[in-house]
Write a structure and sequence with these properties.
The protein is of the alpha+beta class. It has helices spanning 16-33, 42-46, 50-69, 157-163, 195-203, and strands spanning 10-11, 92-94, 97-105, 119-121, 131-137, 149-155, 165-167, 184-188.
Length: 217
């Protein structure tokens, strides 16, 4: 059953089991990313700690459980036993839709849910041809305790290009308060498509759609 958390955000199943599993898979991803010959993603090159990987996996696990709750079984998931190599389809695929899950866990002092004026980011220089799903994880409880997780919203590549802000190392923010450290795309939470629209989008097989979503409200 779909549950609205606050401000129209969609609540995801948040369990201790997923928290423990996220740590285990996060450790595996971290270990594999450091092996000789591993694919050199920015995360691997920076030697991200296990928690960084575990946060992402917690968001994916919670999203997977949510898909099952709404009666959708993925054709493909990002879970596997070997993360040494980048595979062709390293994301969720549901009814022909490729999905990029972007998870963020803020500090315990940060408001949850975050303010609509806050940004999300895709974490990559190039925009992938996928629906980008932005998941927020509460930092008020440790990951192993199954903290609250919600879908803030989602965006198509067209929406990110139209409303997003491209960043690069050394670029100063519009308010002059900080300097960006990486190539990325930032997007205001208020510009994201509403979570409830995602349900209908995923239930419509991509190959059979006659009214493709443009990514704009």
């Amino acid at each position: 059953m779909q549950q609205i958390y606050q401000s129209g955000y969609m609540a995801l199943p948040s369990t201790r089991l997923n928290g423990v599993a996220a740590w285990q898979v996060g450790q595996l991803v971290h270990d594999h990313s450091q092996l000789p010959g591993a694919h050199r993603t920015p995360s691997a090159e920076l030697g991200n700690d296990v928690l960084s990987h575990a946060k992402g996996k917690y968001g994916e696990l919670a999203f997977f459980d949510w898909l099952l709750e709404i009666g959708l079984t993925p054709d493909h998931t990002p879970f596997r036993g070997d993360y040494t190599k980048k595979v062709a389809e390293d994301d969720f695929i549901v009814n022909g839709h490729r999905l990029e899950i972007k998870s963020k866990m803020r500090s315990d002092a940060s408001p949850f849910p975050p303010k609509a004026t806050y940004n999300v980011n895709i974490g990559k220089q190039e925009i992938e041809n996928a629906l980008h799903i932005f998941v927020e994880i509460s930092g008020k409880r440790p990951l192993e305790e199954g903290p609250l997780a919600i879908i803030l919203g989602w965006a198509t590549p067209a929406l990110i290009r139209a409303r997003g802000q491209r960043t690069w190392p050394g670029k100063v923010s519009a308010n002059g308060r900080f300097t960006f450290k990486r190539h990325d795309w930032d997007l205001a939470i208020s510009d994201l498509l509403k979570p409830e629209l995602l349900v209908d989008e995923l239930r419509a097989p991509r190959a059979d759609r006659t009214n493709a979503c443009t990514g704009f409200k």
